[in-house]
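Dear all,

This email documents one entry for the complex benchmark we are building for the journal club exercise. For each entry we list the sequence lines for every component of the assembly. Then comes the predicted three-dimensional structure of the complex as a token string, followed by one or two observations. Please use this as the template for your own entries, and keep the labels exactly as they appear.
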Amino acid sequence: MTRRQRRLTLIGGSLAVLAIAAALVLNALRDSIVFFSTPTMAAEKHVPVGKRFRLGGMVEQGSLVRGDNLAISFKVSDGGATLPVTYKGILPDLFREGQGVVAEGALDAAGVFKADTVLAKHDENYMPKEVADALKKQGRWQEGSGGKPVATQGASNAPASVTQ
Amino acid sequence: MIAEAGHYALVLALALALIQSTVPIVGARLRDPALMNVARSTALAQLLFVGLSFVALVTLHVTSDFSVANVFENSHSMKPLLYKITGVWGNHEGSMLLWVSILALFGGLVAAFGNNLPLSLRAHVLAVQGWIAAAFYLFILITSNPFLRIANPPIEGRDLNPVLQDIGLAVHPPMLYLGYVGFSISFSFAVAALIEGRIDAAWARWVRPWTLVAWIFLTLGIAMGSYWAYYELGWGGWWFWDPVENASLMPWLAGTALLHSAVVMEKRNALKVWTILLAILTFSLSLLGTFLVRSGVLTSVHAFATDPTRGVFILLILCLFIGGSLTLYMWRASALKQGGLFAPISREGALVLNNLFLTTACATVFIGTLYPLALEVLTGDKISVGAPFFNLTFGPLFVPLLLAVPFGPLLAWKRGDLAGVAQRLMAAGIAALVAIAMVWAWTSGGAALAPLAIGLAVFVIAGAVVDLVERTSLFRSPFATAMRRARGLPRSTWGTAFAHAGVGVALIGIVCETTWNSEYIGTMKPNDVARLAGYQLKLDDITQRQGPNFREMLAQFTVSRDGDKISVMTPSKRSFTTRGSSTTEAALLSRGASQLYISLGDTAADGGIAVRIYHKPLVLLIWFGPVLMAFGGLLSLSDRRLRVGAPKPAKIASKPPRALQPAE
């Protein structure tokens, strides 16, 4: 083979691999990304039953109910709307009433959000960024003591997830 | 006093970096050895001063001087000494200081041990190091000064984030930075080569050990971070495809590709232009990682927009170095001489394939990491790209790569014989098929692809063994001869075999853990027994304990199997009073390479406690694999040809150097 042919083989091969990779990426972007909603956004958008999304908001005070065998239900609110959530398993260390939360799952026919994952950012000012942004937009952002917002950008820890 | 001294030392280091970044270049233009040698002394002096600055910050943390803002925000007088020291890099300012210290360390090493480098190359390399260093000193001094004082010093500090108070995190950032920043050396060599417009096989031989050192540390650093997340975060997960993790994975993928393409350049004087590009890209990805983690852009795009100083500064550094080096590359790369010819089926061809798949896989990680950020900036939509995305893109790209791994080392340089190699790999193929059949017959449930993946992993490991067997002709000649040959093999051959086997070992761990892990979740009271994977775990009792800066609730479990007591496990939950937060300390019990894992949840009103127990089969292989890879890297680093140093570079660039070692 001449240098030219060799180079063409090389370039052809590279382009083939890149095309496959591009197809994989586009396919994955269509199917496997999850959108984020607050309860208000979920109500406005009429998210269909069974469609997975991330729900973010504040855990409503007094809404946490622990059932048998680690079944848990609570309500997530963003000031506008409220959405009941059920979950089975162990909640993250920093899950508290009145604090921000992000849960991943889907709505069931009764309009209850069945979460299979509750996300926690390991930070004492536990506030997922999506929730902070959404609350800021709605003007419900509280400034904490010392001029620091209640929810600050925390250390660069990996968010951990509880999956059941 | 110490804080001011540390600050002053940092300013002096900046001044030295500025001298280091200009004078040697002028010296190289004027061909003045004295001016070029300035690079050496300034690099060493810079290391001394930034080292002093770092020691000053450590001293402030150890003595709990809360008049310094950085110490006040991240330390506590009751904190154990170890975490007082590691707390230095458990925060933004301190970790940036560690970053530049390591940068200066690498520069200092080149200065101290680069005596066999041509004078002008060394001057250029150190000058480029000086530019990087100067940019980051400015960043620290202007936006993230760790030595700032507080006007009214408080009596007590705010303590370090409890999840960071852990031995894993004491070692993980320095390791990771040694990897990240280590790639700056290959970057500087690449830029220096572009400036000089000259590059040959000797260049590759100088760059390879530095790349290898950085790669070893990055491999270990990533593995350690993953193990830390596994036991400290309490969910039993070991990789989350989180942007912070991806930020370290991208330079690793590019660095692995660089390591392989540098081999081609060293042995065959080919792929020069590509190797230079990879060297630039690898360090660019390290810079990108630094930007992602340190600018706050991951926490919130809006946080980045409202407090932009740090983010914009790093972004500027990023654009300057990546843009600058790529522009230089476009301008000068065509001036570099073309290298040797090779057929598509050859060792070179296999290494090109390796590079192709590694860089493409790196690109998918890049897209998955940055696409959500870009989308949020452009449209305001918030999406999360998680494991499903990467499983669908990264996974399929790694399958052909792993299939090709055993072929590479067996192919000859220049023109290989694929059929012959396939024949020699027959044994490995059979081993893989047997493994698939056995796994398929003996396990039930789980993904159908799992036995195939195990087969692939076995193929990679067996392929590494076949390579060694072939080279020593173990079964064809007397045992003593084979042993003598084994001793005579270059260390880098052993290194390749170990590193490749490590990939297979890690894959087995990953597949087994994800496919056959079992878990028990429930509320337990004392004397309750949980049964999982043939083990009985009895909750004996729950006790309270006071630690140095936390209160701890311990649960004691007795683990037994078939009635025989094996061990006792004590998971706990710690609550840290200063920060009002708690951490879950999981208990781990290793049985061979498998582990039992217990983490505690909340206590219920009736005295029960929520418990999560996992049985993770062969999970330890996930981290044993990278350790093997790093060991392989170390063996390769100790290879004779790297120790003796590089041959003299070709005097006349038009003639390819023929004095190179023959291809193995």
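Observations: Residues 121-126, 141-164 of chain A have pLDDT under 50 and may be disordered. The first helix of chain A runs from residue 3 to 31.
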